[in-house]
Each structure stands twice: as structure tokens, then as C-alpha cells.
Design goal:
Number of helices: 6
Structural class: alpha+beta
Radius of gyration: 15 Å
Strand content: 25-35%
Number of strands: 5
Order of helices and strands: EHHHHEEEHEH
Strand order of the largest sheet: 1-2-3-4-5
Distance between the termini: 47 Å
Largest sheet: 5 strands, mixed
Length: about 160
């Protein structure tokens, strides 16, 4: 059964639902947890600060939220983080995609694909030239998901330095 999904950038009203979704991902995803220390993961407090920054500084990026309607209420069922950057190779603004997550009750129902398809269309309208992301080498399901959407491997590893 197809699920009707709408997507939009996070607003103040949707922030608690986005925080819950992203908190589940950051707390439970084994692939994220494997590198969380290197990322300087600050837990729920850091997530709350980040979401406040997205609300206060939308020029830096946004949280993209997927919703469906249950009874007469809109329910957030997926989210991902999008930051803007300038690419010297493209000579244009690109997007950095992180923390793609779907609520566990909605997995394998087309939510992630619909959410990213809508995001791609939104970013094209913004004039974004490319979407960069990362995927844990051992997360075969995520690799297949991204490849179905047209992402290609860059054969490089993401690295980080905490300041």
C-alpha cells in the first residue's frame, strides 16, 4: 500500500518531531555509532543546539522532514540534514547530506526514497549543483538505497578532525 508523503524544511513547530527522529538515528544506528566518538558526538544536547542553529541560520542549511497523515494529523516519519557549501570543482553551491533516517515503524515502505526524491527536486530548484554524502562501508542496505537514487561512490573515505 502506497503511503502519501509530503516533505518540507523543518519549522519551529516540527522541530520536536525532527529532534525525536534524528535522536533515534544518532542513538541507535550501529553504523553512525561506530564513528560517533571521532565525530565528537555530543548527544541530545548537541542535537538540540544544531536544530536551533538550522532554525536561526537557514542560510547554512535545513532539516528536511517527511510527513504523512494519520487520521487528520500530520506525522513526521523521516528526516535528514542538509548543509550548503561551495564546491571549487563545480564552481557552485552544493549540498552535504547527513543523518538520513526513517522512523523504525515506517522502514521499507518507500519513505526514504520519497523523501530524498523530493529533496533532490527541491535542491534542483535552489540551483544546487551536487549532493555529497557519506555511507559507512559496511552498510550494504544504505549503499543499495543511494545507488537506486543515482548516487555514485567517490572511492574515498570521509575523515574528521575535532577542534
Amino acid at each position: 500500500m502506497a503511503v502519501a508523503i509530503t516533505c518540507a524544511p523543518m519549522t519551529r513547530a516540527v522541530r520536536p518531531a525532527a529532534q525525536s527522529l534524528l535522536g533515534i538515528f544518532l542513538g541507535d544506528d550501529i553504523h553512525y555509532r561506530a564513528s560517533a566518538q571521532a565525530y565528537g558526538d555530543g548527544g541530545a544536547t548537541a542535537l538540540a543546539r544544531a536544530l536551533a542553529l538550522f532554525i536561526d541560520r537557514p542560510e547554512l542549511g535545513f532539516v528536511w522532514v517527511a510527513h504523512t497523515t494519520i487520521d487528520t494529523s500530520s506525522v513526521a516519519i523521516g528526516a535528514c540534514v542538509v548543509c550548503r557549501a561551495i564546491s571549487t570543482s563545480c564552481g557552485a553551491v552544493v549540498a552535504k547530506l547527513d543523518d538520513v533516517c526513517v522512523h523504525p515503524d515506517w522502514l521499507a515502505r518507500g519513505v526514504g526514497g520519497a523523501m530524498l526524491t523530493a529533496l533532490i527536486a527541491h535542491l534542483r530548484l535552489e540551483g544546487i549543483a551536487r549532493i555529497d554524502s557519506a555511507c559507512h562501508r559496511d552498510n550494504a542496505g544504505a549503499w543499495r538505497f543511494y545507488e537506486r537514487l543515482g548516487f555514485v561512490s567517490l572511492d574515498e573515505e570521509r575523515i574528521a578532525l575535532l577542534l
